[in-house]
Amino acid sequence: MTNLILCGGAGTRLWPISRTSVPKQYFQLFGKDSLFGKTAERNRALCEKFFIAGSVDTAFLAQQQLNDAGVPKSRALFEPIGRNTAPALALVAMSVDPEEVIFVTPSDHVIADTPAYEAAVKRAEVLAKDGFLVTFGLKPDYPETGFGYIEHLGETVVSFKEKPDALTAQKYLESGKYLWNSGMFCFKAGIFLEELGKFQPMVLDACKSALKQNENHSDIKPEKSAMERIPSISVDYAVMEKSRKIRVVPCSIGWSDLGSFDSLYDFSRKDPAGNAILGTEQGIMLGSQNNLVFSQSREVALVDVEDLLVVDTPDALVVCKKGSSQKVKEIVGVLQQKNPGILKDHITVPRPWGHYTVLLDAPDCKVKRIEVLPGKRLSLQKHFHRREHWVVVSGMARVTVGSEVHDFGPNSHIHIPQGEIHRLENATSELVIIIETQLGTYFGEDDIIRIEDDFNRV
Amino acid sequence: MTNLILCGGAGTRLWPISRTSVPKQYFQLFGKDSLFGKTAERNRALCEKFFIAGSVDTAFLAQQQLNDAGVPKSRALFEPIGRNTAPALALVAMSVDPEEVIFVTPSDHVIADTPAYEAAVKRAEVLAKDGFLVTFGLKPDYPETGFGYIEHLGETVVSFKEKPDALTAQKYLESGKYLWNSGMFCFKAGIFLEELGKFQPMVLDACKSALKQNENHSDIKPEKSAMERIPSISVDYAVMEKSRKIRVVPCSIGWSDLGSFDSLYDFSRKDPAGNAILGTEQGIMLGSQNNLVFSQSREVALVDVEDLLVVDTPDALVVCKKGSSQKVKEIVGVLQQKNPGILKDHITVPRPWGHYTVLLDAPDCKVKRIEVLPGKRLSLQKHFHRREHWVVVSGMARVTVGSEVHDFGPNSHIHIPQGEIHRLENATSELVIIIETQLGTYFGEDDIIRIEDDFNRV
Questions:
Q1: Are B396 and B377 in contact (CB under 8 A)?
Q2: Chain B touched by A344 (CB under 8 Å)
Q3: What is d(CA B241, CA A214) in angstroms, rounded to the nearest whole number?
Q4: What is the value of pTM for the model shown?
């Protein structure tokens, strides 16, 4: 069975944890683990093969984290633009054997009850092998209005329901006949494509065209122009709500989509006073109850407060009343005008070659800590508006400056003159860490002129 | 008239704004101005001469800020240990002409009504010249239990009262006969010493002994052993409550001691929603009312919260319910065990020669931005456990390494080998700014071996 992990979500309501360059699924929310990492970890016991589908800008994070989760090889659909779920599933289904069972999962959900989850997936696999399109229906805990519902009789789907109003959601909950539509699916590739062809022949054809250029490639990289010709449509609407081959596996697996800080609080473990404390620091709680505190490296103290969501990152802080976390979207709206950069990047920015942390960003000077993974290298590049000074902290850095290439160990200093072509490389099996001091008048990432790049960013 | 500014306060209840190395009176709480700076600014119109009294560790801050406030020359009492107010006043009174009027003020209070303040001080000066010991009595706004009270009839003091309980404070307030004891005094030096000699001859004698070594010096630097022999006693208890030459100037000057975040909120200007926003960032307030927000450089957003005190510094955050800010002392108690360093220093640390900011503090690497004031220099020093790399960002740095001295302009790099004697100096009239990358295994300030120092720190 192939696990297709959908990685497209932006997680805007979890800002400042979730940022455009590291959406919530990739953020190390629980110690070393991201939601994506936990998804891969969970599904490794159930699937032999992995396929990821997501934005070309962040897919490298999925590949790195799959690797960290012990999945060394996977395939990828790099989407130049998002077209919702049906086209993504179709493009992947066309790229595997028609008999292959595909298990589709989001990357940004949490599941607390692994045995129940595994039992449900195994049941779905059996149904998929029998030729059904299988969806997973979650037994609702409360009258949520933000999800679609499935009316069912055992594994038979009676009807799909749009997101209900509060009263309807309450009725659904009380009747016991409705399940939350989880966004997880399981089916044979060939069956899915047959059904898609029946109900959405245009989507099928447009996906076939987009795939043509990619024949014989392990990864799928459709052209942007070809993607633009594919209708944007969800798999629920395109196929599931119309097919007669549909089945549902009802399950109760301790699921949450962590769609808001309220749901992050609900899902997290609490101390005896009801405080959920996430991140590296313990926090000091004086007379404070039922709060969520997320922090990374700062001392955080709460005094005589309750029902607060306190989310603290190195460059942004949100203090929100519990129950109001949907309003984080409004903060994001304000910041789109006021400070868009803070929506895009954390101060630590991952790159396909490793990551950097901005230590200082002043008008005349920018300082970064740069970590290069073994065997990786940054692009061959130059800058028009800055000079750089590198000090090697650890590892052996292979440095190109102009036509010269030399290896530099700890305590070495390298000067990169303005306009000079240069490259930083780690040709060893140990991390390379440097401190970079940039001097000049402009330090934007768009003053990186790439001459050559291992990651196709030229 | 000489303004004696007492600078000894620690301001513990304003942590994390107030730290041991920069107590609240020196912190730039209101934009560029500190409470000390505002005190000096205020008194410059009233006094020709200035005397500061405070810890030897932080007195340089008072001298720098006096200078910034346009007071180029001042005298100082450097206290190796604190002995409360009476000895400080005595040591200063002994060091000026007996006919000189001394106006004693704290450094960490705010006064909103400058004209009323000036009128009160001028009246006090007249009374002092007539030979009285003058105290300032503030008309109370509310039944505060944290201050002492003065019972009065016009300018005549009927009695001094200890800090009252809530009921007594309420009675004092309602009677209209009581004033808050402000901690400000005005008297002729000779009269004060006479009265001190009457009631506390031991204190007078011990102060005389401590001063002996300092004859003919502008600044007073008593030996620690001599200071230890002086009884620790407040001026109220030692003299004011006993002398018959006492007078009080009742006044209403918009005074606050900013003793807690609650009083900081009360004193600060509010927006129409009752939010007081201090620091450099505006903050994003969604549905939030009557909060105090202090932040320096981070984006802070509040959603649907009210009556909170949110105090945000680069390395520590306090979220406190309004009315509970006295409990900040308890946080400090916890941190004395858990993380004492965060009680001592901000990430930006002032020094007599300028200041530095810690950008990174990792086990193998520490990065600082260092700013050296014109004409100042760091000590001639060496380190046993670190190598340093300096990159000049701006200005012309005069650098000693071993026996070599050279001037280095922007974009220069200087390497300081482990164990090598070195010095950084600014011999120009412009700021010198460098980025320092330290490599090694230990970066504590106690691995600075000073061979020579302009500030007597060898």
A1: no
A2: no
A3: 93
A4: 0.92
